[in-house]
Amino acid sequence: MTRLQGTNPNRTILVIGTLLAAVLIAVALFAVRGKPSGSGQTVNFNLSGQPVLGQEAAPVTMVVFEDFKCPNCKRFEDEFLPELKTKYIDTGKVKMVSMNFPFLAQNARLPTDDSKLAAQAVECAFLQSNDLNNSFKTVLFRGQGSESVVWATKSRLKELAGNVEGLDTAKFATCLDSDQTAAAVDADEKQAVDAKVAGTPAIYVNGKLVDSYATASVSAAIDAALKN
């Protein structure tokens, strides 16, 4: 998982070097970040109007938060999702809901928040259709650049959109240039922050955070949910 970074204002307390201070800092971090992965805490997300892969009536819901600049998200989509799709999504057992958590450009203090621009672009494709949303995601991850530089500019995103069969590129460009989907991306990000998502990809199965994005871990969580 690609994780959030930040400076803890209590870090200077570590100079005391006492066991008690270390415990207090751990408790403080726990309160700020929320419970760690695998804690069993259930989160209720508002999934209305979100892109979905799979059948709407599937008994298990898998929510995936991603940043399109995130190399681990690309790995999940390229290496792990195909097997999960074949085993669970295509068989009607799971529906996957995609949500945005664009934080990498802000973390790197880049001059342009291209994490958010990439998310807006995917949402612009989604306005045309759910299938085009999924197709554009594939193209976008294929064209992914370094997380430490600005690459998902509006001009580059329009170029990538030209590789998506069936996408109305004129409508897409108008949507992207007008920041039409910025509010939708902000709403996703707020849900991620409220849930104390610590990085991407963050995968929730029926509201419970999975401790790894690897196929085995996600499969185990899905199998457990199916039994319930």
Topology of helices and strands:
Layout: E1 2-3, H1 19-33, E2 52-53, E3 60-66, H2 71-89, E4 94-100, H3 104-107, H4 114-128, H5 130-142, H6 154-161, H7 169-177, H8 182-194, E5 199-200, E6 202-205, E7 208-209, H9 215-227
Parallel strand pairs: 3-4
Antiparallel strand pairs: 1-5, 2-4, 3-6, 6-7
Helix pairs in contact: 2-9, 4-5, 4-6, 4-7
- Kindly provide the radius of gyration, computed on alpha-carbon positions and rounded to a whole number of angstroms: 19 Å
Largest sheet: 5 strands, mixed
Share of β-strand residues: 5-15%
Outline: globular
* Beta strands, count: 7
CATH class: Alpha Beta
- Output the number of helix runs: 9
Transmembrane segments: 12-32
Organism: Deinococcus oregonensis
Protein name: DsbA family protein
InterPro entries: Thioredoxin-like_fold, Thioredoxin-like_sf, Thioredoxin_domain
In words, what does this structure look like?
- The protein has 228 residues and is of the alpha+beta class.
- The chain has one domain (52-227): Glutaredoxin.
- It is 48% helix and 11% strand.
- The chain contains nine helices and seven strands; from the N terminus they run βαββαβααααααβββα.
- It has helices spanning 19-33, 71-89, 104-107, 114-128, 130-142, 154-161, 169-177, 182-194, 215-227; strands at 2-3, 52-53, 60-66, 94-100, 199-200, 202-205, 208-209.
- It has a five-stranded mixed beta sheet with strand order 2-4-3-6-7.
- The longest helix has 19 residues, at 71-89.
- The protein is globular and about 45 Å long.
- Residues 7-38 have low confidence and may be disordered.
- Belongs to the thioredoxin family. DsbA subfamily.
- InterPro entries: Thioredoxin-like_fold (IPR012336), Thioredoxin-like_sf (IPR036249), Thioredoxin_domain (IPR013766).
- This is DsbA family protein.
- The chain crosses the membrane at residues 12-32.
- Residues 29-227 form the Thioredoxin domain.
